[in-house]
Amino acid sequence: MMLPTDKKTRAMLAVMFLFLTHPVPARSEAGAAQSLSGAAWRIAPVAEVAASGGQISLPGYPARAWVPAQVPGTVFGSYVNDGLEKEPTYGDNIYRVDRAKYDRDFWYRTEFTAPAVAPREHLWLNFDGVNRDADVYVNGTQLGGMRGFMQRGRFDITGLVHAEGRNALAVRDHLPVGGANGSSPSFICSEGWDWMPYVPGRNMGIYKDVYLTRTGPVSLRDPWVRTALPSRAEADLSVQVTLENDAAAPASGVLAGVICPGAVTFSRPVTLGPGETRVVTLDAHSVPALRLKNPRLWWPNGYGAPNLYSCRLAFRAGLAISDAQTVRFGVRQYTYDTDGGILHFHVNGVRVFPKGGNWGMAEFMLRCHGKDYDTRLRFHREMHFNMIRNWMGMTADEAFYDACDRYGMMVWDEFWLNSGGSLPADVNVYRANVIEKIKQVRNHPCVALWCGENEGDPAPPLNDWLRADVRTYDGGDRRYQPNSHAGDLSGSGPWNDLPIRHYFRGVPTWGNLGDYGMRSEVGTATVTSFESLRRFMPRADWWPRDAMWNLHFLGPSAGNAGPDGYNADIDGRYGEAGGIEDYCRKAQLLNLETMKAIFEGWLDHSDRDASGVLIWMSQSAYPSFVWQTYDYYYDLTGAYWGARAACEPVHIYWNADDDHIRVVNSSRTSYRGLTAEAWIYNLDGSRRSHAAGRVSSRPGAVTDCFTLHYPPGLSPTHFLKLRLRDDVCRV
Fold it and tell me: Which of the four CATH numbers 3.90.180.10, 3.20.20.80, 3.40.50.720, 3.40.50.880 does domain 334-647 have?
C-alpha cells in the first residue's frame, strides 16, 4: 500500500506498528488475560447440594467439603487426582467404578479477584469449552450458558464484580445423555468403544481454559486469514474479523494489522454505531500489501517446510488500544481431484500422498495437554507421516492443531456423528457447534478436509447443513466429505493382521468401493512391550492370556482386531511363545512386518489406483493391545519402526507378492544415478546372493529395479537386506 506523506499520520502508524509487533497474548484483550484455570475449583453433585446457583455463586458460600477440582479437566478426573478413585488405567479398576456416582450433573465453583476496570472498559468472563452443557453464575446472577462441547462462552461481567474483595463463580455442568449420536456434540466415544472403556461421567467437565479479559468499547472476534495462490511465487491474502461495539455510543477508530515475517502492515478506518456488530474484510484487491511476493509456503511433512506466519490485529480508538488479537496461519492452498473415482489431495499445486493414522482420542480421560501433543506429533513426524484423521472430532484442543501446524501434519477433521443414521437430540445445537468448530480451527493450515460422519452419511437435514456451513464459514477452501469411507474413498478395514503378501495384491474391506484408493482405516492388533504391559496389567494376569486381557482389548471386546489370529501368527511365524516376555518380544516382530507391509502395499500402487492410507490407529489413548504405533506410555512398538521404514520419502522395498524390488518416491525431489541393492543371508549369517541395479526416481513414481531370485541352499528362515544409495554412497 502507499505510505502516507503526512507526518502526523506517519507518526501514528509508527506507534501502531510498534504496538502490533510487540508480543501480546493471543486472546482478545486490551489488558492481560487473567487465568481462572488451575486447582482453585471445587465440585459437588447437584443432587447433593440444596442451594441454588444464585446462592452457590455468592462469595463465602461454604464449599470446603466439596471435592477439589482441576480446570481444565473432568469431574471423574478430579476424583482420580484426589485419590478418591484408583488409577483407571490399571487392571480392571475403571470397570469397578460406580457409574451412578458420576453419571449426573455437577456443580463447579471457585472464587477470584477481579482487575480494576477503567471507564469505557469491559471485563469479560471467557470459557473455551465445557462438556457438555453449562449454566454460568457470578456473584448471585445467572449469566447464561453454553450448549455443546465446542461452544465458547463470553460474558460481560463489568457491573457484576468487585475490584476489591472476592467474587464467586459457579457452573452447573450437565451430563451428556443419550446414545453416541444422541449425546452429540460431545465426546461421544466416552460411552465406550472397542478400544477404550466407558468413562464414568462421560468426560463431563470444564475441559478447556477459563479466563478474564479486558477490552475497550470495541472488541475483535474470530479473526480469519485466508490464502490463495495464483502461483507458488505469489499469495493473495484476505483478512476478516468481526468488530463488536459493546458501548451505547458510536465508536470510531482504526483497524490495523501486521503480518510477520515480512512486517506487512495494513489499516482501515472504521466507525461503528451503538451496539453494532460488523464483519470487516480486507483483501489483496483493496489492500495491495496483502499480496505477498515469494511467500514462505506451508507444506506437509516430507514435501517441504511447514512455514508459519502471524497476523496481529488491533482496534485503536484515539491513542488507546480497544482490543487486539493474534492468529497464526500458513500460506497454502488445498485442491482435490477424483480422477478414476479416487480422491487425491493437492497442496500448493502438488499432488501429495497422505500417509498417517487415526486418532480415536488424545487420551481417554482428556488428560493430554500442551507438551503431550508435541511428543505425539514428533513421533508422527519421525514415522514420516503427513496426515492424522481426527476421528469423529474427538480431539478438540487448540494445542493439537498448533502441533499439527508445526510438524506439517495435515488433519482430516470430522464432526461428531457415528454410522447409523440417527440424529443428535437437538440438531440446532449441533449446527451451532459445527459453526463454532469451523471458526475455531479454520486458520490452521493443517486442516485439509472436513468429514461429516464416521462410516455413514449424515441424516437429513445435517448433510446439507454441514456442506453449506463449510462453504460459508470456511469459504469452500477445503473439501467437504460426507462419509469417511465412501464417495471416492475405498472403504475401511480390515483391522486385523493379514499375510504380508496380501497387502500387495488387494486388501479386503468393509464398504469397499474400489481397491486401494484412499483408505481411511486399515490396521492390526499391536501388543505392547513387556515393560509397558507390567505397568497396567496385574502380575497374576500376565500369562497366559485371560479375561483381564479382554478388558484391555485383546479379546472379544475388540473382535475386529482378530486377537486369536494375531496370536496364531506370532506362534506360526516366530515359534510358540515361552512366556509373557517372549510373547511381547515376538509380537514386536509381527507388529513391524505387518505395519511395514500395509504402507508398502499402498505405496506400491501409488502410481496407479492408490492415493493415500491412514492406519487404524497411530496413537494410544488407553493402555491396550490393539491399534497403536507407540503405546500409552510412549514406548515405541514394532509398528512404529515398520511405519518409519516404509514411509520414508524415498523408499526401497520388496513386493512380497511378486518378488520385485522397487523404489517409491513420495517427495517433491527427483533423484538420478541411484543404486538399488539386495542381499540374501542364511540364518547363520552367511551371504547367499547379491543383486544391484541403477535407477532414477522422480516425484510420485514407483520404479521397478529388478526381480529377486533365490539361490539354492537357503535355510528355511533367511533374511533380505535392501539398500538405496547415491553416487557418493549416501544411503
Answer: 3.20.20.80
